[in-house]
Amino acid sequence: MQSSAALEYDYSVAKLYMWTAVIFGIVGMTIGVLIASQLAFPELNYLFGEYGTFSRLRPLHTNVVIYGFTVSGIFATFYYSAQRVLKVSMGESKLLNGLGYLQFILYLIAATGMVISELMGITASKEYAQMEWPLDVLIVVIWVLWGVIMFGLIGMRREKALYISMWYYIACFLGVAMLYLFNNMEVPTIFFSGGVGAWYHSVSMYAGTNDALVQWWWGHNAVAFVFTVPIIAIIYYFLPKESGQAVYSYKLSLLSFWGLMFVYLWAGGHHLLWSTVPDWMQTMGSVFSVVLILPSWGSAINMLLTMKGEWNQLTENPLIKFMVLASTFYMLSTLEGPIQAVKSVNAIAHFTDWIPGHVHDGVLGWVAFMIFAALMHMATRAFKREIYSKSLLEAQFWIQTTGVVLYFTSMWIAGITQGMMWRAVDEYGNLMYSFIDTVSVLHPYYTIRAIGGLLYLIGMFMFAYNFLMTATAGRKLEQEPQFRSPMA
Amino acid sequence: MTLTEMQGYAFFFLTVFLVVILYGYILHLYRSEKKGERDYEKYGKMALDDELHDRPVEANPKVTNEKKES
């Protein structure tokens, strides 16, 4: 290990992931707005032949925003903040830095492969696990490399204790590793079919209800270990650092961590309520989902209390605005989820538009807002420049907040309307409405949702422009800011 | 006793066990701080004083020793 006085943190790998986060954010959200519009105006399905249909684009939207935008954001913040809280530079180990570059190159190959293969209609047909087996193998390599770098940095650290963010990054690494391996246990058919069929095709090793159970154990925990755990890691570092306030209660952060770790893994059964899954398993899924409110609110309240006595920053600093609203949306989303997991509510909510409504107040309000704030905070340090435009950031905040509100309110109304109409029976027990009746009633709400999505996308473009200008044309900083990110 | 009853008892005792563990952990955190064995809140500083030249909240003895040897 070098001990040079001029030693600095090395953000080169972090910067690469910052750019991919911005690019995938634009791609994923553009597809999102297109498919939302297709639901309101079906003729938009025929813009690009088979490549433009809802069925082809919907998995592409979810995969690009999850594995492109969010995972890039997670890697970027990890390569940035892990060095800082461990007080060790990536530049101190040529091996780890080299592995970081290798991981990024493999990630880019995998992400490009994912976009192309899904656009071609090549899919394993499992939600959030659509990538076929060759890409799955590549992803395992990428993940193992991340683990090597993470534990390599931990092994070199100057700070003895691991900051709470590191706990969450480690949990993300271990959780996804376990879930991904088990859910993607698949048999490449070419090896057993005597050479018939495509080389990349596979079938799941599980069948029927077992497959559904493993799938939703994965599906829900992808939300846990990709959309929650690493995002908490991000807020635990970036909110205190940007505001200059230490975490309100470190003890509460530890307690919430263990609570979340234990409870989350058991809640996936709520995706299969009223299905062929054993009843006790469904009940367990419901119960654990309700218990999940405690550790989730523990973290969120801890973050809000971190701002105690410093609420003036909320009006003065748009990055604090993004993070405080993210924390609030996290509370809303983690209260809404358990409500939907209650069996009687689920009987109305399941398969309706309330579900994507719930998902999007979580991902747009919590996940993406946190990633935006973290990217801008990092940009000032990594590019050593002032944020290009504060007013653009403020405008983005309000436009996107309006977009999220339009999105989830329209979907709440649409979902409950839909659920009630599906269940409505006349005095003889006959269904009162056909499916198309619900579609015509829901049309205005689908339009509002598409407008909400469009507003969010406009905000994304504003962010991308602001980020690009910050990196290239922002006023150069002589000294790294200690807390608040400077902005013009 | 049927399998369903056994599952019921197992679920109940597991829940009691986990509640004990959870409250035990809270007790452990507060007690070790009260006894002066550990100050958990100082770890919050790790996010704030995170420059390479900042003094670590708790220096890693392994790295410090290596430095001394070299």
Question: What tags apply to this protein structure?
Answer:
heterodimer, A: 488 residues, mainly alpha, Cytochrome C Oxidase, Chain A, 1% strand, B: 70 residues, 59% helix
What share of the residues of chain B does DSSP label as strand, in percent? Answer: under 5%
Structural class of chain B: mainly alpha
Order of neighbouring strands in the sheet with most strands of chain A: 1-2
First-residue to last-residue Cα separation of chain B: 68 Å
> How many domain modules of chain A?
1
Helix content of chain B: 55-70%
What radius of gyration of chain A results from the CA coordinates?
23 Å
Number of helices of chain A: 15
What is the CATH class name of chain A?
Mainly Alpha
> What is the subunit organization of this protein?
heterodimer
General form of chain B: elongated
Q: What is the number of E strands of chain A?
A: 2
Round the mean pLDDT of chain A to the nearest integer and report it.
95
Instruction: Kindly estimate the percentage of residues of chain A that lie in beta strands according to DSSP.
Output: under 5%
Report how far the terminal alpha carbons of chain A are from each other. Answer: 39 Å
Main sheet characteristics of chain A: 2 strands, antiparallel
Please, what is the average pLDDT of chain B?
87
Q: What do we call the CATH topology of chain A?
A: Cytochrome C Oxidase, Chain A
Tally of DSSP β-strands of chain B = 0
Low-confidence stretches of chain B: none
Point out poorly predicted stretches of chain A.
none
Structure description:
The complex is a heterodimer of chains A (488) and B (70). Chain A is mainly α and 488 residues long. Chain A has one domain (12-473): Cytochrome C Oxidase, Chain A, CATH 1.20.210. Chain A has 15 helices and two strands. A two-stranded antiparallel sheet of chain A has the order 1-2. In chain A, helix 13 (354-382) packs parallel to helix 15 (435-473). The radius of gyration of chain A is 23 Å and the shape is globular. The two termini of chain A are 39 Å apart. Chain B is mainly alpha-helical. Chain B has one domain. The longest helix of chain B is centred in the N-terminal third of the chain and has 32 residues, at 3-34. The radius of gyration of chain B is 22 Å and the shape is elongated. The N and C termini of chain B lie far apart (68 Å). The interface between A and B is medium-sized, with 36 and 32 residues.
